[in-house]
Amino acid sequence: MKYRYLIYILSLAILTACEPKIDEFSPSKGSADFTTYLAFGNSLTAGYADNALYSGGQENSYPNILATQFKTVGMQGDFKQPLMPTNNGVGVELISTGLFFHTKYILGYATDCLGQQSLAPVFADPDASQTDLMNQLIAPVVNQGPFNNIGVPGLKSYEALSAICQFNPYYARFKSPDANFVLEEIPKINPTFFTLWLGANDVLRYASAGGASDSITSMPLFSSSMDAIITSLTQYGTKGAIATIPHITSFPFFNTVPYNAIVLTDQSLVDALNLGYAPYNTIMEAMGLEYRINFQLGANPMVIADPTIPLPDSLAMLKMRQIQNTELVLLSIPHDSLKCAYWGSQIPVPDQYILSESEIAAVSDAINNYNIKIKDLAKLHPVALVDMNTYLNEFESGMVFDGINFNVKFIEGGLFSLDGVHLNNRGYALVANYFIKDINRTFNANIPQVNITDYPGTQFP
Amino acid sequence: MRKFIYIMLLFAIATWSAHAGGYQVRLQGQKQTGIGLIGTPFNFGASSMFYNPGALSMMKNKYDFSLGASFTMGKAVFQKDATDYQAKTDNPIGTPFYFYGAGKITDKLAVGLGVYTPFGTSTKWDDDWAGQMLIQNISLQAIYYQITASYQINEKIGIGAGIVYATGKVKLNKALPYNNSEANLEGNTANIGFNVGVYFKPNDKFSFGIDYRSKIIMKMKDGDATFTVPSALSSNLPKDNKFDAELPMPANLDFGLAFNVNEKLTIAAEVNWVMWSTYDSLIFTFKESGDLLNSANPREYKDSWIIRIGGQYKLNDKLTFRAGGYYDPTPTNEKYFNPETVSLNTIGLTLGLSYQPIENLSIDLSYLHLLGQEAEKAYEPDNFSGTYKTQTAIPGIGISYSF
Question: Which ipTM was obtained for this model?
């Protein structure tokens, strides 16, 4: 009996005396002042994800994550964001019949035209009424402001200083009465520190339209717009961080549907297609053009529309060709049309779903030039350069953080949300850590990074 | 006494832990534990079976029994790199135990049976801690059953050897990077090994010992793997799976020297060469979804040399005091430091006490305090790094009876 008591008492005494201790992390603000933080940017800054702006995504925006960490180094007050009224949120698309409103995507099961069920992004609430969604989107929230996160989904650099941005419903809903454009929201907050990540839409809106509409912002316009924005942000010597623009064509939106998605298993179908395209090949040869369309058993490159083919108007219907393996098929392509409506074989895939080689090159050149400009700005102003382009490029070959593997694959890659362009929660947390790393380095600060495992990845059903 | 044994056995079926030298636990005799875990140059009766079977034949009485257990209360603290995140383990109290019974068949030949637990670890991190994808909790337990024969060549030299049948049990949990997902692995195994030792006592002043214990590889075959994943992933990751893995229990070569300063005071030193370099990687092979699940996880342990000193003072016929200390450098590789085994460079400090109410009975108490030195470590394959520190308190109690 006695021994037992002895053991109990001894155990208890030792347990309490035996706590290993490591010095706690000691945050410091270095030479920057984080009292009031303003985030300027586009959808990536707003916390847009899963093809919609929704409250959960906004709460997980990298600026909101940063704000939480900045609190350890003196940020005061709340970090206000123009939160959407629901967690299903609203996304909006321009379609032939007008505007189409929808909720965010979640991962669910979709049934295709062949009756096959597969894991796919589906709308969180497919039955939500258009009117309700529109009302959610346009309901003003300006009375909850002023806002620290003035990221506007869809915003291009020059739109930030043009009244045209009032037509963007994501800005209109939180626009201050006396502001004409996003830039004029800055004095409402009077930040002591800012982040600026802008410019992706200057190419993305063009690229996600397959280069068939919209246009790439010219370099002079991008330059002068960014100059104006950073001048406004830094006018009282305010410090901040500016991020480069990632090469969006490596995102899943541009890399999920394979170029050779036309899989033929039936020789008679191969023969029929080749017979059908025989006149095309003959005409191309006669016109001295090298385009030929040929099918064989197995995976075949899609037939795509290409309005740049130099044919006379009388032969405009032949402005099509097979896609190169270096060209990209967009995730927005209607998958059922590919599977059941002979797109890519009998019917050329419309141009708006394809990024051709020259379009890819135009996008890539623009991004390179934009990033040169952004790096120049970082040299001229008291800001940290966050080379997000380089950081995100590293994910192409795969990265691992705290035992979680990431790459740029759609859904399974763990980095992007279900729209294939915007990041998921973990992706935004990684972005926040990259900002912190470079802010720490530049201002000799010591702001704690966040744990990636605290952020959920893509939710599987 | 019956109650005491009962409590011992109760604890013995619980798991146990120690944060030193990989997952080795050298708590196989309370007298040895008190004196800096030095055993090779001593004849402490039946427990010599583990420390140096050569010394067993030197036991004074015809029969010798020894039974004991220790209670490891360890905690590791982790400070994640570049964050203000700290985590602590909530390890269960571990109870390494031993039982030895030995008898002399002739004046020169002694035989014995021992059951002891030289390897084990039990580390429990919070389920949602930052390293959850590496490990949430793990318990590893090996029980060795040893039969031993020891022969006294003459009054100065004894030799001995034992054959070990070792059983191993491992159980681990880790999170998977999907929503509400985790993997559970559990397996049992058994294998055999041996130990040999030479004990040499040239005169009343000095004694020496050399002991070698073989490596035993615990080969897990068809262990149970259970995966909890969202239903959308269950075709890729079937819920019930089987796995193979192996874990080495490394060989040890021990040299010990004891010196009797006078009739009351003995001092001793020992060196253990622990051949951890055998632990190169931890390989899991799964029966189903192997292309997705199979993994070779580098560990790249290196051999370690443990240096020990200790002393004992025999106050009178009833009381003996012991103290000791040692330095146990971590065998882990700093690039492949996995929080499943938080093994740091460790300083061990020991105290011991034996009370002999009658000549044949000894009640032995020991206390071991381990200080795992703060160090920055990384598990590079998972890009997981931070600073670790450990502290462990291990009181122990045992009895030995000879006649």
Answer: 0.92
Establish if A1 belongs to a structural domain.
no
Please state, in angstroms and rounded to a whole number, the distance separating the CA atoms of residues A346 and A262.
Answer: 11
Domain count, chain A: 2
* Chain-chain contact of B372 with A21 (C-beta, under 8 angstroms): no
CB atoms within 10 A of CB A412: 14
Neighbours of A459 (CB within 10 A): 16
Question: pLDDT tens for residues B186-218?
Answer: 999 999 999 999 999 999 999 999 999 999 999
What mean pLDDT value characterizes chain A? 95
Q: pTM of the predicted model, to two decimals? A: 0.93
A140 and A184 both lie in a single domain:
yes
* Position A24 in a domain: no
Task: For residue A56, list chain B residues with Cβ-Cβ distance below 8 A.
Answer: none
Note the pLDDT tens digit of each residue in A267-318. Answer: 999 999 999 999 999 999 999 999 999 999 999 999 999 999 999 999 999 9
- A109 and A225 in a single domain? The answer is yes
What pLDDT is recorded for position B26? 86
Q: Does A3 reside within a domain?
A: no
Summarize pLDDT for B86-131 with one digit per residue, the tens. Answer: 999 999 898 999 999 999 999 999 999 999 999 888 899 999 999 9
Residue A187 lies in domain: 37-254+358-454
**Do the beta carbons of residue B133 and residue A403 sit within 8 Å?**
yes
Contacts of A404 in chain B (CB under 8 A): 133, 177
CB-based contact, B75 to chain A, within 8 Å: yes
Report the amino acid identity of residue B387.
T
Q: Would you tell me how many other CB atoms lie within 10 Å of the CB of residue A9?
A: 10
Domains contained in chain B, number:
1
Name every chain A residue with its beta carbon within 8 A of the beta carbon of B230.
459-461
CA dist., res. B28 & res. B347, Å (int): 19
Q: Is residue A405 within 8 Å of B178, Cβ to Cβ?
A: no
- When CB atoms are compared, the residue of B7, B76, B84 closest to A25 is B84
